[in-house]
Specification:
Elements lengths: L8 H12 L6 E3 H9 L5 H13 L3 E6 L2 E6 L1 H14 L11 E6 L6 H13 L3 E4 L2 E5 L6 H7 L6 E6 L7 H8 L2 H24 L7 H16 L2 H4 L13 H29 L1
Antiparallel strand pairs: 1-3, 2-3, 4-6, 4-7, 5-6
Helix pairs in contact: 1-9, 8-9, 8-11, 9-11
């Protein structure tokens, strides 16, 4: 659920690493993380607990650097973040001319757990189920499905095809069967309700207002943490197949306008904290 200021600390930590640690080799000190998340209203015990959970999940690895205790992103986490960048920060939708990407899979009953993993991963990548064992998503030029399935060792169970819809029926009606667009609209509505007030506030805020960089950091971190899951739920359908008044377009305007306004001052705040 989109909640604006109450995202779980582990989600905020992953956002912080994705934005600010990769240029420095994927490492942040524990002290810096505690100071940064304090700006977001997260206390030290909650930060340390979240770090421990991320370590157990293989996202973070403990490493000391220049005498400081800290954590770096695992190789797996770095790969996930690289794959996510193109999706999270991609604005253009697919077009009807792009066609479709089909994933056809078959998993032996003796490995049914892999079937669950494969279905979960295809869902996370925005696929809808067109028929049992046949999943579909718009064929975005930057699609990373093959890389993801290969990285997870699932490529042996699936085949990927490019396809066009030739016949029959109303394609717009079919996509509403393949994806829950009503729920996706509700998710986008929650995002707009949570973060459009910040956008209105920044449009009124003088450029030299006090504590501008810190405020930019808190608003941008919250917005990106809530945003980064939505492009995985949204298959990026062509505009012609979306309901009238699709609020996802407005939600994207809110996020990308906030990003343009806040990313630089937010990073300036982080660099002062890390370098302090």
């Amino acid at each position: 659920m989109i909640t604006g200021s109450t995202a779980p600390p582990r989600h905020l930590i992953v956002t912080a690493y994705g934005l600010y640690a990769r240029s420095d080799g994927g490492w942040l000190s524990v002290a810096s993380l505690i100071r940064l998340l304090a700006d977001l209203g997260v206390d030290e015990p909650a930060v340390r607990s979240a770090i421990s959970r991320l370590k157990r999940r293989g996202i973070l690895t403990a490493r000391r650097h220049e005498g400081q205790a800290g954590y770096e992103l695992s190789a797996e986490a770095l790969a996930i973040l690289r794959e996510g960048d193109a999706r999270i920060f991609r604005r253009q939708r697919a077009t009807l001319a792009d066609g479709w990407l089909l994933a056809v899979f078959s998993v032996p009953e003796s490995e049914r757990h892999r079937r669950h993993v494969l279905r979960s991963e295809l869902t996370r990548l925005g696929f809808g189920m067109a028929a049992p064992g046949v999943w579909i998503v718009p064929a975005h030029p930057q699609d990373a499905t093959a890389d993801v399935l290969r990285r997870l060792g699932l490529d042996a169970y699936a085949d990927l095809f490019r396809a066009d819809h030739l016949a029959f029926g109303d394609l717009a009606a079919k996509v509403r069967q393949w994806w829950d667009l009503d729920e996706l609209q509700r998710q986008y509505q929650r995002f707009v309700q949570a973060h459009e007030p910040a956008l209105r506030r920044w449009r009124r805020l003088p450029a030299d207002s006090a504590d501008r960089d810190r405020a930019a950091f808190t608003d941008y971190m919250r917005a990106l943490t809530d945003w980064r899951r939505l492009p995985y739920l949204d298959p990026g359908l062509p505009a012609e197949l979306l309901p009238d008044g699709w609020i996802g377009s407005h939600a994207a305007d809110v996020f990308f306008t906030l990003r343009a306004r806040l990313a630089d001052p937010a990073e300036a705040h982080v660099r002062r904290i890390i370098g302090g």
